[in-house]
């Protein structure tokens, strides 16, 4: 059947974003639906048994579904204007690994499944790893169902219009019991493998990270008629917070703080905004410094707001503590892959959410640009092939 490069080529047009560049594929939008349908066709062409769970994650079973399975997969959604590899590489490598194993006559002795998670990036409803958080009960089901996209549609409504029933959203003990071990292959989102001159790594840890919405409230007004001394412009404290975030992260070892999204309301060139919503993404190696960075920034946001006669409300939209992947499992995989190096990552993953429940591991494939969440994200065809082979080897060992 097809290797990972042919499979990626087959979806290269789906969700291509002409305006932003790269890909915009968000849960249940046209592009993501098309990818889901494509995945189901590909899985069925391999005689895998496909089902969608209560939380909109897709499972494709090699043989009968069963407990203590070896499960591999990733996601098909993207950030706005994202790269071609973040998510899809793990999915196509899983399909390709099944082909590699079939071609050599392998028959799994443990159940084996490919799993595609819903809304990993939180690109539409704001909470990353929503499918795996729901599956594990890491997010309250009612809260998840009520999450709204930028046009006001709730996750539950979007699920219904996709044809799925949101009434049984939430922790799925039966599905979780099925996962004996989980392995996610992912494009590397840094230059660790370039520096080490290796094609494939295993993951050691994920930074503690979360997302916070700062809503600055001021007085909407006329850009020409309002004296500077009379203004309560929420864009001022918002922009001060952008700078403060950079300063705060620079003061924390391994810290990162990003404002990648800022929405003034109503958003007119000649209008002083009445509110500005700004999302802070903050990360660091440990919970304490991530939390204290955000507390400090909330404090200064309030000072910046009062100096302009504005107010600010801060809402935590998601959080995940530091993940240390199971060291025994990680070393076992590394041993199978010519002592693949172990790399930590600053990016969140469904494997990190699952790691609290089941032994979970990740394989990273070299990214020569080191760039991710942008069109320049890349993996060379030979490295994608090496990644799929590495995954096949891991699955063969775990399920054989
Ligand atoms: C997901 O890719 C994240 O780390 O935000
Ligand atoms: Mn991502
Ligand atoms: Mn990803």
Main beta sheet, described?
Answer: 9 strands, mixed
What string gives the helices and strands in order?
HHEEEHEHHHHEHEEEHEEEHEEHEHEH
What's the overall geometry?
Answer: globular
Mean pLDDT: 98
Distance between the amino and carboxyl termini = 21 Å
What is the helix content? 25-40%
Estimated structural class? alpha/beta
Indicate the CATH class of the largest domain: Alpha Beta
Ligands and ions found: glyoxylic acid, manganese (II) ion
Report on this model:
By secondary structure, the chain is α/β, with parallel strands linked by helices. The protein has two domains: 4-207 and 322-399, 3-Layer(aba) Sandwich (Aminopeptidase), CATH 3.40.630.10; 209-320, Alpha-Beta Plaits. The chain contains 13 helices and 15 strands. The chain has helices at residues 4-10, 30-45, 88-103, 130-136, 141-146, 155-162, 173-178, 192-196, 235-250, 287-307, 327-336, 350-354, 381-399, and strands at 49-52, 58-62, 69-75, 112-117, 179-187, 200-206, 208-217, 221-222, 256-265, 271-272, 275-284, 311-320, 323-324, 342-345, 360-365. The strands form three sheets. Strands 1, 2, 3, 4, 5, 6, 13, 14 and 15 form a nine-stranded mixed beta sheet that branches. It has a four-stranded antiparallel beta sheet with strand order 9-11-7-12, covered by helices on one side. Strands 8-10 form a two-stranded antiparallel sheet. The model has no long low-confidence stretch (mean pLDDT 98). Glyoxylic acid (GLV) binds at residues 121, 128, 347-348.
């Amino acid at each position: 059947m097809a290797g990972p490069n042919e499979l990626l080529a087959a979806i290269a047009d789906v969700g291509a974003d002409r305006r932003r560049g790269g890909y915009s594929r968000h849960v249940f939008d046209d592009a993501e639906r098309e990818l889901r349908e494509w995945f189901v066709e590909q899985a069925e062409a391999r005689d895998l048994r496909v089902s969608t769970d209560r939380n909109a994650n897709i499972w494709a079973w090699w043989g009968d579904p069963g407990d203590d399975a070896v499960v591999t997969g990733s996601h098909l959604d993207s950030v706005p204007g994202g790269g071609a590899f973040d998510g899809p590489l793990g999915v196509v490598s899983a399909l390709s690994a099944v082909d590699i194993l079939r071609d050599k006559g392998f028959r799994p002795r443990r159940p084996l499944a490919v799993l595609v998670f819903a809304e990993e990036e939180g690109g539409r409803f704001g909470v990353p790893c929503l499918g795996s958080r729901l599956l594990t009960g890491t997010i309250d089901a009612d809260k998840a169902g009520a999450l709204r996209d930028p046009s006001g549609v709730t996750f539950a409504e979007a699920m219904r219009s996709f044809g799925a029933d949101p009434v049984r959203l939430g922790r799925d003990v039966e599905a979780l019991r099925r996962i004996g071990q989980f392995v996610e292959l992912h494009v590397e989102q840094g230059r660790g493998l370039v520096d080490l001159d290796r094609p494939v790594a295993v993951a050691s840890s994920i930074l503690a990270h979360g997302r916070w919405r700062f809503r600055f409230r001021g007085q909407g007004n006329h850009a020409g008629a309002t004296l500077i001394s009379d203004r309560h412009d929420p864009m001022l404290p918002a922009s001060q917070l952008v700078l403060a975030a950079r300063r705060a992260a620079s003061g924390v070892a391994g810290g990162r703080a990003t404002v990648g999204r800022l929405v003034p309301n109503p958003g007119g060139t000649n209008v002083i905004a009445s509110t500005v919503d700004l999302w802070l993404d903050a990360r660091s190696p440990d919970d304490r410094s991530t939390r204290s960075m955000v507390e400090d920034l909330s404090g200064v946001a309030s000072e910046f707001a009062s100096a302009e006669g504005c107010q600010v409300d801060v809402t935590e939209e998601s959080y995940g503590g530091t993940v240390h992947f199971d060291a025994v499992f990680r070393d076992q995989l590394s041993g199978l892959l010519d002592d693949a190096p172990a790399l930590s990552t600053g990016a969140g993953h469904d494997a990190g959410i699952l790691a609290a429940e089941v032994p979970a591991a990740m394989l990273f494939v070299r990214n020569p640009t080191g760039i991710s969440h942008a069109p320049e994200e890349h993996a060379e065809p030979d490295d994608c092939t090496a990644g799929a082979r590495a995954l096949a080897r891991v699955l063969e060992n775990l399920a054989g």
